[in-house]
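ARCHIVE CARD
Drawer: 12
Card no.: 0347
Subject: one protein chain, sequence and derived structure
Cross-reference: see card 0346
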Amino acid sequence: MAKIRVSYEYSEAEDKSIRLGLFLIACGILSLFILGFCWLSPTLQSLQSKPANCTVVSVLRPEEMFECVFTCGADCKGTSLYPCLQIFVNNSESNSVALLHFDEQQLVLNPKCSYVPPCERDNQKNRDSVLWWEDYFTKEVSSQSFTCFFNQQRRPDDVLWRRSHDTSVLLHCVLWPMVSLLLGTLIVLLTVCARSLAVRAEALQKRKCSYEVCHDLSAAAAGPSDRRVNKADDLNPRTNSDPELLSSPTRTLPLFAVPVRRRDREH
């Protein structure tokens, strides 16, 4: 029997689904690296800081001014000035005085000051924003204890008022890339499995068809000889009518037998 060949080529729809799955896999891996580098590492560092109780010790505003960059349009940028606000607190975790910062971003932006205002073009607006926070910590928070975050290994002389990142950021950084990666892998696997099942079904169908064709050909080849035998039997009525001849072997006369007449027997 000839070898059955089955086509393993993918259809246009299957090819598109495989490309979609590979695209989702690539997006998941790329986004995992990007989010891990931009968000995951800072979030893990932020979560390493321990909560502690802080109490305001002093609120200072030195004469030193710092520059900030403001934007007023697509091609409009400039610099303005803002005063420095320093808030020193007592950290219950280390029982020492540390400089308070609003969050990690402001700590990196200006480690000498506690608060960096949103940069405005007008210097007076920047000054008013700093003065508002000075009054708030001087009058309302000075006699109260509040929760701060302290990291002994990274910043022993600084504490944070609030975290820039929490566990929800960590969840989103891991969840969505993994969803894209798993979805793409699932699409590719389902497409390949569906194609494999279709190939097996096609092979079984071709085997069944080839078996039926061979059976029909053998029946057609055996048909004429059977008909010739039946025809020869029909032409021999003695064979068909005499049951003794049908049941016994064929009888033959002697080679030198002479027929005897009835008259010779009488004389």
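Annotation on reverse: The longest strand covers residues 50-60. The first helix runs from residue 12 to 47.
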